[in-house]
Amino acid sequence: MRPIRALVPRRRLPRLASPHSKTKQTNMKKILLAVALSSLSVAASAEGWKFAPGLTEPGFKYEPSIALTASSIKPHGADSATAYGVDINFNCGLIQTPDNRMRTHFSVSRVNEDQYGATIVELSPRYTVPLADGFSIGAGPSLGAVRLNVAAAGVPTETVFAYGVVAGLNYRKGALYAGLDLGARRTKEKSGLDFDSRAVTLKVGYNF
User: Fold this and answer.
1) Which of these, 5, 9, 31, 83, is most buried using a 10 Å CB contact count?
2) What pTM, to 2 d.p., does this model score?
3) The pairing of beta strand 197-207 with beta strand 95-96
4) CA 201 to CA 170: how far, in whole Å?
5) What is the maximum span of the chain, computed from C-alpha positions, in angstroms?
């Protein structure tokens, strides 16, 4: 699999993945799958879950928050980059626990580097546990897409499917919202391009 730092199509510069690299990639897939299944098993063990409460439950409250984001992203095989964007999160209106612990995060961010650009769109439903004094922690899978623009002749702009896991610490009190997310992302390779990466994201915004 060729990382984003490769600036020419694979047919011009083939790169053979080493057995060690393939093993690391397989292990990462297993970790992502295990975390996603764990979050689903926690959800499945709860009783009294509500389906489509946003449509069927009068007075359901989404309690949305919106925040500006700044991320440090480390693509596989490339230097770290900074991304800026926006995060909107709210109580999930499709599936919900009796005590409203499912919270959906929708984010859009943009990386602009000299050699490439990437627009990242992700949706992440998370099981969230309240702590104290407005703090909570949440974790869950993420699904989305990455639009890649590589600054090299003959390399097409591509959109690749993305999936991963995210865990975050949130603070919601009064009008203030803040958060810190840690995430790992895998992408489906297309035209020799991928955007497998890890990310740390800071968020500051407003509670409605």
Assistant:
1) 83
2) 0.77
3) unpaired
4) 12
5) 60
